[in-house]
Design a protein that fits this description.
This protein is of the alpha+beta class. It has one domain. The protein has four helices and six strands. It has helices spanning 14-18, 24-30, 92-116, 120-126, and strands at residues 4-5, 35-40, 44-49, 55-60, 69-74, 81-86. Strands 1-2-3-4-5-6 form a six-stranded antiparallel sheet, with helices on one face. Strand 4 (55-60) and strand 5 form a beta hairpin. The longest helix has 25 residues, at 92-116.
Length: 127
Amino acid sequence: MYMRKVFCNDRSGFLEKVKIMFTEFDEFLLTCGYFEIRDWNTDSAEVVSSESGHYWIIKKFDKEGYPGLVLYHSHDGRSYHVHFCYKDHDIAPAVSEIMSHDRYQKKKMKLRNKITKVSNRELMMAL
């Protein structure tokens, strides 16, 4: 699938394409350089985080009994799971959650690298 990185100054008419479900502020958050946009429809945006390489779908619902927004997550871009549900349509908390998830992933990788550099003997002595 075609991916392109969109920067703040390259906002070439996304609002016309996505119509009314996404606000101008939503567009700004998604096109500010943190994400590569894979797909953008009237009610959802599929993005890849530039920090972790993880795939996300931000889906807005406008039906009674549904959450306002659902954030889906995937490591490979094929099989997604629900990561979080939000009551409102505002995507700022979802973007914040993605950034928080990326920070967690970085810390986890740093710790994993430290642990693999330690021998089993050193690890047992530390315990």
